[in-house]
Each structure stands twice: as C-alpha cells, then as structure tokens.
Design goal:
Blueprint: H1 18-28, E1 36-39, H2 49-64, E2 68-73, H3 83-96, E3 103-105, H4 110-122, E4 126-129, H5 133-140, H6 157-168, E5 178-181, E6 196-200, E7 214-216, H7 218-229, E8 233-237, H8 244-253, E9 261-265, H9 277-285, H10 300-306, H11 310-320, H12 331-345, E10 348-349, E11 351-352, E12 355-360, E13 369-374, E14 384-389, E15 392-396, E16 416-419, E17 424-432, E18 438-445, E19 463-464, E20 467-468, E21 473-480, H13 495-500, E22 507-515, H14 517-520, E23 527-530, E24 534-538, E25 548-554
Parallel strand pairs: 1-2, 2-3, 8-9, 10-23, 12-18, 16-19, 21-25
Antiparallel strand pairs: 4-5, 5-6, 6-7, 11-22, 12-15, 13-14, 15-20, 16-17, 17-18, 21-22, 23-24, 24-25
Helix pairs in contact: 2-11, 4-7, 7-8, 11-12
Length: 561
C-alpha cells in the first residue's frame, strides 16, 4: 500500500459499489424499468458529514441511471421539527452540488398512510393496545426470550376501528392507546414483535396544523411514503438492516404493486467528531460551541462556514466508497481531501498572524518595489498579482530569535535570510519594551539580491513571508482544530463528559493579524492559501470594521492525539 505525503494510505479512486450491482441486476431481470431514489431526512436538526455520504449516494445513484431523486422531509414527529431545519437541509444539499427533482413531505401522505392503517385493521393485522409503554416493553421480550401477546391483541376488528377513530378524534391523552401491527411476538427479530404503527400525539404540526391527534411511526410511514412516491430503491444506512423485514412486511400486507427495494450501506463514522443530532444539540444548548454552524462542528453548515469546499467533501465520500462493513474513517483523510482541493484552486497570498515589525535601515524611505507573485502556481491561467515591498514590514514573531537552537534557518544575528520574492536581509539590532520584549527588529538588505539572485551566487536556507507595514490591514484570525481530544466522543454520555474531552486548542483567536488588500476586499466564503501558514476563508462575521478569517486547515496534519 502506498503512502502519500500526508502519511495517509492511498485509497482506490473507484471503490466497488454493491448498490450498483443490485440495481444492474434488477434492471436486467426487469424487476424495475427505471431508477428512483430519495433523500429522507427528519427536519429536527442540521445535517452532518454522515448525511453528506447519504446525499451523495442517493443523488449520484439516480444521476448514474438517468433516474429521479426526490427530497422528502420525514416530518412524522411534530414536537421536534421546525421549518428552520427544513430550510437548512435544502441549503446544504444545494451547496453540496445536488438538485432534487421534487420536494415532498411525509405529511403529504398522512391521509394515505392513515387509510393503510385502516386496511390493516380490516384485514385483522392491526389492533389498538391499552398496555402502558412500560408494559409494552416488558411484553416485548428480549433477544433470547420470546415476547408475550398483549391481552388486547385479539380484540374484535370493529372494536379496534372504533377505538382508533376515537384516538384520531382526540378522545385519549398522549401515551395512552397505540395502534400495533399484528405480526409475531415470538420472532427472533424484535422489530417484528407487534410494532407500534400509530400513537396519540396532540401536537401542532408545522404543515398540517391541528388536523391530526395521531401520527404514524417512522417504520410504518417510511415504506408507505416510498411506495406512494414511486421509489424503486430505498437506500439507507446499515442500522435499518434489521428493519427491512418489517419494511417488506408492510408493503406485502398492504398489497403494494411494484414495491420498492431497501438496500443498506455502512454509515459514515469519522473519528474526533459527533454526528448524533441529540448530542450536537446539547453542545449548542450548553454553549460548548457557538451554534450549529460552529466551524468545529461536523455539520455541513459548520464545514461550509469553516471554508471546506463542497467538492472536497464529495471527493472524501467517493474515496471512502460504499460498503456494508462498519469502519471508522480517520479525520485526517477528510482534511487531506480539503488540502488537495485547495492546493489546486486557492489563490496564494501572504499574511502575518503574529506580527513582529522589521525596519530595513538602509532601504530608502520613499522607495517601493512591486513584486509579481503567481496567484496559484498550479494554475498559470489565474495570472499574477503585485505585492508592494517597503522599508517597514512585518514578519512572524517566531521567524526571529536572538539565541536560536541549532538548525534554525530563520532570521537571527548569525544568519542571512531571504524575504519571499524580495531581498536578502541581515539582522542589525532590535528594540525592546519596558518588559524586555522585542518590539522591533532592524535589518539591512542587499540591493543586488532582488528576487533571490546575487552577483556572487550565494544562497540562503531560510525564506520568510512578510507583509508591507504601509500596505496592510488588521484582521482577526480564528485558528480552528478538531473539537475533541478523544477518537470516539459518542461513547461518552452527558454534557460534562463532552466538556472534559474538548480540545482546549480547538479555537485560538488572534487579533491584530496583518493582511494585504487582496484579502481585505474579499467576500465572505472566499478562500486563500496564506503562504507557510495554511488555508483560510473569510468568515460571515466580517463587516466594514473588521475582517474575520477562519483557518480551514493547516498545510499539513499537526493534530496531536
């Protein structure tokens, strides 16, 4: 196995896709004559990196076969859903580069799903149960013991229909009666032990208002929504594999013609991240992050704000491939995809994050050199831009040391260094404040060394980036890193554990950073490579008074476990 420059194993560009194999066989055997998929998120939170994989699979599969992919919002639980999340989901999908054919909601099918419930009752395959939630759990049994039948399981069909009608009319309180499918309480698959298909829930729905006092459970609504919509291949993550027999049972019991086929794939599990909506919400509500779009979050909106290119996320998903095997992906692979994309596409510029002023004593006060720099050496067609060089400049404070260790090739009393694109300089003296801190370094320059060439042909080992003190602007730079210090924060329960495992260096804010006008005038979301620093993006917090910049990723992986 080859190792690349980021010390990551090379992944095959075209990993096998068993989903395509299934679809090819279905089309060949005439099971279906078309392909239709759907992406069915619940609008109860923001999408994350795991959803990005599902989005890519659902939409790319339909695109490959010239089919249709719809967006369907699973709004069967009105107590947790909000239009804010609907709008965010739509924005994230578009940003990733996909477009749906239609937008549907599970609530569009509530009347149809309700009719299906009545059909099951008429066929003697559903009953109203009066057991309490605790009793239902007790009667369900365990993985090693069969369940017990409810005493209400064989009540007359007419009695069940009457009770279900009264549930629908709002006569009963939440958590009292439920409608259950009558399947097999001895099934080795617990999902088949008379699952609940409707529950009383007196809640206002963001689309249907107060029309309903009963709402279908996901396992019942999902296959029926797929069928009603005309989905051929219902692609979902592996945790639904044990639900497939139930999915198929509903379709068969309700005599669905051309039933959809459910195919499961492994979830996207990335270390050092949280992808549980519930746990992400706790991070937000308890102020451990600034919001769902905090650039340290694994949410799609958080990665977008940080500056991750959508193309890099799609490349990451493609490299992971589609399989049924559980695996945890190294976060470094995602960062590597981001670097590869930005290396090709991001314009280069110079910025000084921790500035130290340098005065070039023998450089004329009224002189300015204009230095031409490639916008991106990987794309000559992007052209060049000019950088002014003047007597007063800024360099990084750690690019100068009075008493350096061995093999220190930056500015110090003993060594000459090159300023990127400009001249060779030597240390002359320095100034300090009342505490002995160095505030200004004085240097001299060699006028014959412009561009790094000298008549005597001498070479230097150190090259420093810089900005002109007369042509730069202050900015705030946020240095982001991984949010957690532990590889699997999902194993930790409770917000106190999250706090204990937070990476204290996940956000470092630097004020007074020095940037050039090409960055100052950039728009929100624009990305740059700051030479020797990493890749950065303009944050939406930028305003006329302050430029706020996010570090997307360092030039190489420097995260310490």
């Amino acid at each position: 196995m080859e190792i690349n420059e980021n010390n990551l194993p090379e992944v095959a560009e075209k990993p096998s896709n068993f989903i395509y194999d299934f679809i090819d066989k279905d089309l060949e055997e005439g099971v279906y004559n078309r392909v239709q998929t759907r992406f069915p998120p619940e609008p109860n939170g923001y999408l994350h990196i795991g959803h990005a994989k599902a989005i890519c699979i659902d939409f790319s599969t339909a695109e490959k076969y010239g089919g249709t992919c719809n967006l369907r919002l699973d709004d069967t639980n009105p107590t947790k859903e909000d239009t804010e999340y609907v709008e965010a989901i739509e924005e994230d999908i578009k940003w990733l580069g996909f477009n749906w054919d239609n937008v549907y909601y599970a609530s569009d099918y509530f009347d149809y799903i309700y009719e299906c419930a009545l059909k099951l009752i008429d066929k003697g395959l559903a009953y109203v149960d009066e057991l309490t939630p605790d009793q239902i759990r007790e009667y369900r049994g365990t993985l090693t013991e069969a369940g017990k039948e409810s005493p209400y399981r064989n009540r007359p069909i007419e009695e069940t229909k009457d009770l279900f009608a009264r549930m629908t009319a709002g006569e009963f309180d939440n958590g009292t009666l439920v409608l259950r499918a009558k399947i097999d309480m001895a099934s080795p698959n617990l999902n088949m032990r008379d699952p609940i298909i409707y529950r009383v829930m007196k809640a206002h729905h963001h689309r249907t208002g107060d029309k309903w006092c009963v709402y279908p459970m996901y396992d019942f609504a999902h296959p029926l929504s797929d069928a009603k919509e005309g989905v051929t291949h219902s692609l979902c993550s592996l945790e639904f594999e044990n639900h497939r027999p139930l999915y198929n049972w509903f379709l068969e019991a309700l005599d669905i013609v051309m039933p959809p086929r459910q195919i499961e794939f492994a979830r996207m599990n990335v270390n050092y991240t949280l992808t549980s909506k519930r746990k992400c919400l706790k991070l937000v509500n308890d102020g451990l992050v600034s919001g769902w779009d905090d650039p340290r979050m694994a949410t799609i909106c958080g990665m977008r704000r940080r500056g991750y290119p959508a193309e890099a996320i799609r490349t990451f998903v493609d490299k992971i491939g589609v399989s049924k095997a559980y695996s945890v992906i190294d976060y470094a692979l995602l960062e590597s995809c981001v670097r590869d994309d930005l290396n090709i596409n991001a314009p280069r510029t110079m910025a000084v994050l921790r500035p130290l002023k340098v005065v070039i004593d023998n450089y004329p006060e009224d002189k300015t050199d204009l230095i031409e720099v490639d916008v991106n050496p990987n794309k000559p067609e992007m052209g060049k831009y000019t950088v002014p060089f003047t007597k007063n400049i800024y360099i990084e404070e750690d690019d100068f040391m009075l008493n350096p260790p061995g093999k220190y090739f930056r500015l110090c009393p003993e060594k000459e260094v090159r300023l990127k694109g400009a001249y060779f300089v030597r240390y002359a003296s320095h100034e300090t404040d009342e505490n002995g801190n160095i505030t200004v370094v004085h240097c001299t320059y060699d006028p014959q060394s412009f561009g790094g060439e000298t008549p005597d042909g001498r070479k230097v080992k150190g090259t420093l980036h810089w900005v002109s003190a007369d042509n730069c602007y202050d900015s705030t730079v946020r240095l982001y890193d991984r949010l957690f210090n532990v590889e699997n924060p999902s194993d930790e329960e409770g917000v106190s554990s999250f706090a204990d495992n937070l990476n204290p260096d996940s956000l470092v804010t630097l004020k007074g950073c020095k940037i050039g006008s090409d960055v100052k005038n950039a728009k929100s979301g624009e990305r740059f490579q700051f030479m020797r620093q990493g890749y950065f993006a303009i944050d939406p917090d930028t305003n006329e008074n302050e430029v706020v910049i996010n570090r997307i990723v360092a030039l190489k992986d420097s995260f310490k476990k």
